[in-house]
Write the structure tokens for this entry.
Amino acid sequence: MLSLRLSDRGLWLLAVLSVLIALAFALALARLSGWMIPAKPTVLVGAGDIAGCDSVDDEATAALLDGTDGTVFTLGDNVYESGTTSEFAECYEPSWGRHKARTRPAPGNHDYETAQASPYYAYFGAAAGDPNKGYYSYSVGTWHIIVLNSNCEDVGGCHAGSPQEQCIPPSGGPYTRRAPIWCCQRTTTSTNALRRRALMASLTRCAASASLRWARAGHRSAISHKLPLTVRPAATTPTEFLG
């Protein structure tokens, strides 16, 4: 009688263990195959040409950020007119500044109107990367974001083989399983200056060959959408957002 009870209990435990192993295997397979939907989506929200003491637009967009979770990115020209210490303190800080703790910035040409963009780097601190570079990368959720510095003359160039170009991970590299995004102020299509377009061409080609899926750039006041991220856009992915 006792041996029968032990046998029944053993079979029951074996059945439960089998179910748990099957569930664990199914969950692992779903995760590897990308079937599982994250409990909370990854949110990236941002803009360029942001703040100025003579404008209320930054207050309006900061109010939108107040109700939006996620990582805030900037696309250069963070504060007008010249990115000075006082402009960051008096014009940027009262609006977008309240989201600084979750902001990953990119520098713009107005930020560099003050020598070496030193107030920009001092204001954002480590989040802005090495002040001698201004380009860096980070990961959020399933995305890998590459922040480039389109102020090429100030950071050793944007040409083929430049240190900045080398920071773009090659296709098939360690971030292949992540969806890469390129963030900067200017690309070949977000600036009208021929010289600037030529400077950024190498970075654009490199980013396109690295299979970047999205690019976000500022500098121009209008918003347009380009397909794909190439020097001469064609009708395939990735998508480039300019604004």
Observations:
- Confidence is low (pLDDT under 50) at residues 221-243.
- The first strand starts at residue 44 and ends at 47.
- The CA atoms of residues 18 and 59 lie 58 Å apart.
